Amino acid sequence: MDSVMMKNKNKKLQVNINRELAGEAEDVIEELGLTPTAVINALYREIVATGRIPLNLTLTPEQRTELHIRQLSKDKPEVEIKTNKDFEEFFDDED
To answer: What is the pLDDT of residues 6-26, one digit of tens each?
Structure first.
């Protein structure tokens, strides 16, 4: 009966992940003597213990620049920018 109660305590988690990425990660996990389940449980325990996701998910400087440009240009009309002068005029706030 205890094993039945233990099964009821577990939640099945289903996710989609790139097959190649999963295979490469599972090779590392296996080399460490672990299972994917053990790694995911450890990840969840760390999230609970620290109140944060223990990954450094940040934008690269290039991504930040692209995001900033998209934010600046979202209310601007569509124009083709061919030169630096066109770029400066596009972002000139004195319109």
So the answer is: 667 899 999 999 999 999 999
